[in-house]
Amino acid sequence: MVDAVIAKSPFKIHTMEMNVGGDPLRIVVSGYPEMKGDTLLERYRFTRDHLDHIRRAIILEPRGHYDMWGAIPIKPDNPEAHIGACYLNAEGYNFMCGHATIGLARYTVDSGLVEKTSPETQLNIQLPCGLLKAYVEYNEETKTTGRTRFTSVPAFLWEKDAEIEVPGFGKVKVDVSFGGVFYVLVSTSQLGLDIVKSPLRDLKDAGIAITKATNDAISVQHPENPDINCIVGTILTDGNETPDTDTTYNLLVYGDQGMIARAPCGSGTVSRVAMQYQKGLTDLNQPRYYKSRWGSSFIAKAVETTKVGDRDAVRIEVSGRGHYIGQNTFFFEENDEMGKGFMVD
Fold first, then answer.
1. Does 1 score more than 80 pLDDT?
2. Are 55 and 70 in contact (CB under 8 A)?
3. Residue 64: which domain range?
4. Catalytic residues
């Protein structure tokens, strides 16, 4: 009976499941429909515009949940890239996700797409935001992979110390920074909240309100990529930005309904380090631990100055570890309306 249902399914998606700093990652291994287009961006847009029913089915409930993340392979057009990808979440598609990059890089090296070298194997990943270089630890004796680090696309501070009016909080001072996507950064001390001790619902509500208010007040536009033109979330911080700080906290509240990252947020960490560097709060090659509310951490540092368009920018290195937690095969019955994917508010 089950075999007959699977045979009739309009899709059969195989995935590898990972956990990166507590954040889930669902990597599509096979079964995804053809993505049409001559470039990675064209293929990404085709996926977004014509294949969104697949995203909804594998990311939303009942197969996933609101805080789920996914990665799908896309054929790259950059000759330096070993692979291309885009990242999925409950609200759509993200140009960049740090924890997904860490997990995807380890899985790709383990799958044998590139020749393994010790002590690290380099993997170049083309994303809609640009080319990332990832490095996966590899132990020749045990034949095992480990920690992953990646070097970001050029990151930059877009708006510094802007005062915006946030309903329920009054005037709040924020920074807007780009780390693959645009985030608004704000210290919870201004909000009367604490990343670790305050109720998560209060932090989530604050992040949703700040993202909306900042998008209403500040326009953003990547200098070279017209698709990147909105603030996708808020990075709540503990405000510890002084040059001698070695450990600090992040909490990502993403999207209109407030997806909560369990990890410290890789692209958010990139955005925060870019802000710190361009404000003179950190130096090149000064590492810090960026921790989540739940105790997981990434190590990050600014490693190289550069330009993007006419803006000064910096590349950030972030390192963390992804772990395998399972595999799935997803299919669909035509009369299963709930199986098309839904969200619980």
1. no
2. yes
3. 2-152+323-330
4. 97
Nearest-10 Cα torsion for 33, 39, 42, 43 = 10
pLDDT band at 4 (very low <50, low <70, confident <90, very high): confident
Instruction: Examine the pLDDT at 176 and tell me if it is beyond 90.
Output: yes
178 and 146 in one domain? no
What pTM, to 2 d.p., does this model score?
A: 0.96
Domain with residue 70: its CATH number is 3.10.310.10
Token duo for residue 263: 């990890």
Average the pLDDT over 321-329 and give the result. 97
Q: Within 10 A of 152 (CB to CB), how many other CB atoms are there?
A: 32
pLDDT at 27: 98
Indicate whether 90 belongs to any domain.
yes
Identify the residue whose tokens are 């110390």: 161
Q: Rounded distance, CA 342 to CA 345, Å?
A: 10
Query: Is residue 98 domain-shared with residue 190, that is, in the same domain?
Result: no
Contact 73, 85 (CB under 8 A): yes
Write the pLDDT tens digit of every residue in 183-210.
999 999 999 999 999 999 999 999 999 9
Residue pair 164/172 in contact by the 8 Å Cβ criterion: yes
- Alpha-carbon distance of 323 to 226, in angstroms, equals 34
Written as one letter, the residue type at 105 is A
